[in-house]
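Can't attach files on this board, so I'm pasting raw text. These are the components:
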Amino acid sequence: MIEQLPAIQLLLTLLAAPICSMLRNGDHAWRLATAATWLSTVVAIMLLIQVWDGGVISYQMGGWPPPWGIEVRIDELNALVLLLVTLFGSLVITALRESLRGVMRHQRQSLYYTTFLLCFAALIGITITADAFNVFVFLEVSSLSTYALIARGRDRRALTASFRYLIMGTIGATFILIAIGFLYMVTGTLNMQDLSERLPAHWDNRVIQASLAFFTVGIALKVAVFPLHYWLPNAYTYAPKATTAFLAATATKVSLYVMIRFLFDVYGIEFAFEKMQLSTILVPLSIAGILIASLVAIFQNDAKRLLAWSSVAQLSYMVLGLALLNASGITAAISHMFNHAMMKAGLFLALAAMIYRVNSSKLHDLAGIGRTMPLTTGAFAVMGVGLIGVPMTAGFVSKWYLISGTLDKGWLPLAALLIVSSLMAVVYIGKIIDVAYFKPAPPQHADVREAPLSMLIPCWIFALLTIYFGLDTRITAGLAGRVAQSYLGVS
Amino acid sequence: MTDSTLLLLALLVPLAGGLLLTLQSNSPNTRDVISLVTATLLFLIVLSLYPAVLSGDTPSIVLAEPIKGLSFSLEAEPLGLLFATIASGLWILTTLYGMGYMRGNNETNQTRFFFCFAISISAAMGIAFAGNLMTLFVFYEMLTLATYPLVTHKGNEDARRGGRIYLGILMFTSIGFLLFATLWTFNLAGTLDFQPGGILREHVGPGTAMILLTLFAFGTGKAALMPFHRWLPAAMVAPTPVSALLHAVAVVKAGVFTILKITIYIFGIDLIADTGAGTIVMWVATFTLVVASIVALTKDNLKARLAYSTVGQLSYVIVGAMLANAAGIIGATMQIAMHAMGKITLFFCAGAIYVATHKTEISDMRGLGYRMPFTFAAFFIGSLSIIGLPPLGGSWAKWHLLMGSIEATQWIIVAALLVSSLLNIAYLIPVAARAFYMAPDSPDKGPTTIAEAPLLCVVPLCITAAGSVLLFFFGDSLNQLISLIPLRATQP
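---
Top answer:
Structure tokens for the assembled complex are below.
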């Protein structure tokens, strides 16, 4: 049983999806989907415990040994990403039922949960597979289901947002496919480990160099690295209800994981960063992303869009951390991947709870919501403070490592810029908090009540986790630090 | 109960009291009793830490360690204990006074008011007992955020504008400079723990030391160094009990306390003395203490004048710290205590005048002395203590500061201190003098007999005025604690 866990992890939600589509009753579909996702969370935790001491789980699909068969490989890095996807995905889907009730018909709800499960399963697939081509396949499955999820938004602009994401996402996926094709062409293998062993012999091969270029651009689109972030704000803004919480927590983070896996493992640090000098591109782009996206966020009047722009900035933090290429930087990137997924999912969820009551995410409609929905707003405030990076919250830990990383490099001005960007986060989060607590509620929202418990509880779990991971960092920064050590130790 | 538990309790008691009193928002009497009991309990907790600290111990407790080498921890040492004693002791009086003031003025949202007050005190305790710079930073920000609703209490446009300036300056300086300097320090020294004699000694050259110290001083916006002093006059839109305890004692003292703490436990005065790292800060502070006094002269609004007076008096502490000798440190520490006692008296008086007559401008207060003799007598005593004349507590602080600057052969600072004292006389004495020696504006209106503010307002201000006198005669027990501080500033 225990040795079959990787396969169970992959198949659990993948098989639940078609069953879900056959259920006519939306509530039953929700029960099935929630049960499946929580079960896979349990599996993810078990896997994390197994690899905790640096062990690696290698599972051969169908008993075919790699590099011919498909291998599932779980180490400390993707065990953490696995926990991120399953735990935060499960929390969001738990809150989804109430959020969708009354918005969608039952039949539609079943299909919605089916798409959700497909996306969920595909993200798990990307995370645990050790096969480069599999990454592409799952990436496509997750992207296609994401387009469908976004298009379900009630606002008609959701359709254009989804279409725009589809175009950009397809370009990205195609580039990744080309990159993987080039790799296969030169090395004749698709297994990641095998690839990383064979590649050093071909470093001077133009095809491999082109492959790296295609991959970087393609994945940068998926991660929404500035200036390829174009699709993200609209997609997040118009995605229906709590769906945004799921997307913000998982989709970009898993793409970031793929970026780490390929650049650090498959291509290797020496090739990607020393020979091909990726840092010289990624560092300026991420700095620009941090500053510009934060600035744009400040001027938003829609809370959802504001948080979406903040995501662009936060993703740039992670890319910057990677590009710093020192222990603190990589630790920052990986732990911020987890911490930001948690905080942003929670923020979007709390916002969805507010939207559930006031039917708008415009700032002026959220006025005075701190008084009418004190518990939801309280959770929002806690996570907002975490996003800013206030000590004793999760956001602080990853930001601390990031700034330490820049200081270790001796880049004092960059450290100062990061502080400035934190100040900008204070402004844009403060904008929401200020409206919520210190502005009087408009008369039409006078009878707004607290969000239903099924949404409130997941919100507060996110909020409490934000504090918990600010104090106990063994799982986040601890694991991330070990991963960083292993990458830098080898090179 | 161990001393480390007591430390934790000092944080939790006001928090718990604050939460408890929100449950009693419908019965003001119960609520105010809870406030009072909480304040008294906290004061007793702080006092019970004295035996250990006086015997040279530093009880400490580690709450969490999220990053290796960087923990959230509490520690009681002499300077922090002194600050905690001042803040918690004066909280009792302010609670009494606040009950009288808020009821006398029929203020709204009284429960929120007392709740935020309790949170602010908890934050002040956190600052006092922070075991390292990061913990201090957390509570420093908590204090800013908890006092923001108090500043904007009135809720009108004026209050909101004041609140924006308040939050804007304090957040900008603390995140922009203080946090940055903190991170830099950690990167250099590998620790942020407050250690006797400092942690930076082997890690910085003179240039870096000066930049860092300047960043720290300007980053501590609560210390109101010019040009980042504007938040303090802006905060005067708050109800007077807030101005009294928070903006004359807890918040501003938290600022200069932070600078002192950094001087003593992060740099160590030897480092500052050897490298001259404090030069910029010292001159900015000297400039501030003279200019703020001149600005105070021009203000007719009593609270605005007191605010600028506070700006000036805070810089005494900073100058004392930057002198980097034992007398300077002692003077700075004493100034924290003495100024707190004197300035809270003055603010209590300003509030009492407002409750009794609704007057805020000094020019309207002619002849009020006969209607409110206790209030104005207390105001006079408080003024003398701020100026630094014997037989009042404030004179000790000024004395040690002068000694310190003479010892450091900083003659310009000696001159600045003397000029500033003259200016203090010029802007404080006329307030009481007008009230007693000039005829009222319209003698036929209003009662000519004694018509003081409610008893709950008048009694606390008499107590603090008496306190200023007592501090002069019984400064010894205070000295016992304060004399421990310079020792810790130089130990290797």
